Structures are given as C-alpha cells and as structure tokens.
Amino acid sequence: MSWTRRDRPLWVRSANALGRGLEALGRTAARLDEAWLLEEASRRSGLSDFGDDRFREPLRLFVAALEHEAELTPVGRRLAQRELLTLLTNRLEVEETYRRQPQIAEQTLEPPLFVTGTGRSGTSILHELLAQDPAHRVLLSWEALHPCPPPRRESYQSDPRIRRAEREVRLWERIAPSYRTMHENGARVPQECIYLTAHSFVSDLLSGMYAVPSYAAWLARADLREAYRVHRRLLLLLQWHHHGERWVLKAPSHLWALEPLLAIYPDARIVQTHRDPLAVVASMTSLMATLLWMRSDRIDPVALGKRTLRSIGYMLEQSLRVRDAGMISPQQICDVRYADFLADPLASVARVYAHFGLTLGAEAESRMRAYLAAKPKDRHGAHAWRLEDTGIDVASARERFARYRERFGIPSEV
Questions:
Q1: How far apart, in Å, are the Cα atoms of 314 and each of 109, 204, 307, 346, 388?
Q2: Number of structural domains, the chain?
Q3: What is the DSSP string of 104-153?
Q4: DSSP string spanning 188-246?
Q5: DSSP state of 29
Q6: Of the given ranges (132-141, 182-191, 236-245, 404-413), which has the lowest mean pLDDT?
Q7: What's the CA gap between 20 and 132, in Å, rounded?
Q8: Entry pTM
Q9: 227 located within any domain
Q10: Is 5 within a domain?
Q11: pLDDT tens track for 181-190
C-alpha cells in the first residue's frame, strides 16, 4: 500500500534504533509482563483494589499476544506499556472512587442513544453533530482516558487533564502523520465507547491497535456483557457531577454486540449508519494499517484487507441477526444511509430526532450548522485509499453484500 513507502519521522526512527540497540544488549525497551504491569499500576496510584477479577484472563491473553504475535517496534512496546498502565491505573482509581462514594451506583441512567455502523460509514461526524445539542452528554477523549476524579460541570472546559490528554492523543499523529487525515483527534473530540470497554480488557480497541490474532479470536467468542457492565459503571461515574438529559455514544463495534449491549441497556436507542461495504473495507484497511504501522514494521495489506472484509461481514451479520430475531423493536433503531447524510446532514439528524420523539431545538440546530461550516472535508488532507491495495476479489465481495445493500437501499461506491 502507498503508506508503507512513506518514511517514518526521524524521531521515531531514532527511538526505534536506540530501542533495538538496548534489546541487542539484553535490555527490553518496555516491560509488558502481567505481574509487572499490575504492580507498577499499584505503585503509581498507591492503590491495590482492581475490582472484579474477570479482567485478568483477557489481560493475560492480550499481553501474551503482544509478546508472541504483535512484532512490536520499541516505540510500539512503549505505546503498549503506556496504554496498559493507563487502563490498569484507571481501574484502581475507579474502584477507590466508588468505595468513597458508593451512592454513584444508585444514580439513574436515562436511555442512552448509541451511534453505530461499520467503520468509515459516517458514525463519527454524525456523533459529533449530535454532540452539539446542549441536552446531550457525550464522552470526550480526555475523560475517557482519565475518568477519575469524576469531571465537574464548573471545570469541564478547563480541567488540567485536558492538556495532558491532548499531548497523549496527538502522539499518534506525531508517529504517523497521515493518521490526522483519517480521523479527528483531540482531547475535546467526542470519543468511542471502546475506550470505556477497554477497562474490562474485552474490547475492540485492543485488537484494533495491535496484530494479536489469538486475542481477537478469543474476543469473538467472549461474553461481552462484562464489557458493557464496566461501560455502564464508568458512565455513572462520569455523570456524577456533570450530566445531561441523555448520553449520546458511539462505536462501530456496537454493531456486532447489540445483544450484550441490550442486555445491559435494554432501553437503548440505536442509530445505525449504512454505507457500501466495498468502500468501507478499502478505507478501513488503510486506517487499520496505519494504526498497526505505529506499533510494528510488519504489515501485510492483503491479509489485513481480507481480515477487514471478514470483520465487516461478521458485524453486519450479527446486527441483522438481532433485528430479525426481534431482539430490538423497529421503534428502538433508526437507519441512516451514508449517501443521504452526505447530501443533507441536518436532514438526517432531524430524522433521528423525529424517530425517537426528541426535540431538535433552534440552538442545537444552529450549533450543528456552525460545526459543519467550521469542518470542511479533508481539511487535514485527503485520506487516500485504493480497493486494489486490499487484494480482495471485488466481484465476490460485491455479491456477498448484495442482499444487505438491497435491504437498505445502499448505492454502490465501487
């Protein structure tokens, strides 16, 4: 793929060279063994209660896959270590917060609205528009990364964690500058739910950033209710001092997990976006390759393309299974076609509000229009992707998704 021919930034090449030099001397760039990670998180926080032990098995599996499958660069190891320590430290701080303030668990949680759909199908921009409504409470990057102490309304725009998180999220762009053309980044940008479910270590966030096939295979069979239990626990904590009329949340991974999601949130409202899967697989392969390239030198775009195609197919199959089995009522889910959204974003937003009987106020609509005007397409450069880079058979892939496209009236983009 074209991105593999780009040079890494000098500082990344230098850091990797230094790390490899240390490895040649028998010194690791960053420790990733489970016992050390748990001990280090406790040392940094001064706490020892990680809560429910069900996180330990997926953590153990993921760490083993990092060591034996991910083929991490020294910079990749550093990223993995930092990300794992953040999640473990957060678990300790969340448990301590609940211990001190057990009444957090007694709050009510209004029916949340979840935006989902395959990646690259408009979920992010739709979520960002819905976030402009003052009635909506959305998950921002900084509080997803550092949820404790619970954010307060009076300091929500000036919390010192914002500056810290900004440095952390911008690091990905510094490692792989092309990433900023693919995804909006920033401490105050609405974030995906996978950053909450990751605290259970049962999450697409982990399998999406690293080449860990054994963990991914385990995840496909795992009971995801634990991930959503942790998700809900974190929402209650985050709204403790700062709540809205309803949470508006987003993640493509909800698409294949609607059944466990509904087990924890039976009154959830779902918005599903729809786009030509062939356009999605090419764009997603490019994005996933870039995420892996931040952490490893070994990227096989053809294998990744086939894996992405299988993943998209599985997500759609699972979502249709839930619908066809009557596990979710038509009133509980609203469909938005990507083509319709591109043609008139505000009309699509208005349909979502009407479907769920919500009021789209004048202030919310004005803020949405201003947001769109301030965010022109490709402002950070065009995200270039080519279907031929994925190595998939276009004819067979088109046939595979024909019934899905016909069911939702999705126009072809390829």
A1: 30, 14, 11, 30, 22
A2: 1
A3: GGG------EEEEESTTSSHHHHHHHHTTSTTEE--BHHHHH---SPPBG
A4: TSB--THHHHGGGT-SHHHHHHS--HHHHHHHHHS-THHHHHHHHHHHHHHTSBS--SE
A5: S
A6: 182-191
A7: 46
A8: 0.94
A9: yes
A10: no
A11: 777 889 999 9
Does 330 sit behind a cis peptide bond, omega within 30 degrees of 0 on the bond before it? no
| Partner residues linked to 117 by β-bridges | 273
Average pLDDT in the chain:
93
Give the integer Cα–Cα distance in Å for 247 and 117: 18
Q: Which three-class secondary structure state does DSSP give residue 182?
A: coil
pLDDT class for 296, splitting at 50, 70, 90? Answer: very high
CA–CA gap between residue 382 and residue 402 (Å, rounded): 29
Give the pLDDT of residue 380. 41
Chain-centroid distance of CA 390 in Å reads: 22
- pLDDT of 202 above 90: yes
For residue 116, the domain's CATH number is 3.40.50.300
- Reported as type and span, the H/E element at residue 180 is none
Nearest residue to 276 via CA among 124, 413, 116: 413
DSSP assignment string, 312-368: HHHHHHHHHHHHHTTSS-GGGEEEEEHHHHHH-HHHHHHHHHHHTT----HHHHHHH
Question: Do 187 and 151 form a contact (C-beta atoms < 8 A)?
Answer: no
92 occurs within a structural domain: no
pLDDT at residue number 277? 93
| 389 and 288 Cβ atoms separated by less than 8 Å | no
Residue 102 lies in a domain: no
- The set of residues, in sequence order, having a beta carbon less than 8 Å from that of 383 and lying 6+ positions away, is 181, 182, 283, 286, 287
Does 384 score more than 60 pLDDT? no
User: Looking up tokens 């983009």, which residue turns up?
Assistant: 413
Query: Residue type at 58?
Result: P
- Least Cα distance to 82 among 23, 29, 21, 157 occurs for 29
Bridge partners of residue 152, in order along the sequence: 241
Containing structural domain, residue 379:
111-408
Q: Write down the pLDDT at residue 388.
A: 67
What is the enclosing helix (H) or strand (E) of 247?
strand 246-250
Share of the chain above pLDDT 90, in %: 81
How far CA 100 is from CA of 42, 86, 103, 233, 239, in Å, comes to 18, 21, 9, 15, 16
Question: Which pLDDT value is given to residue 160?
Answer: 97
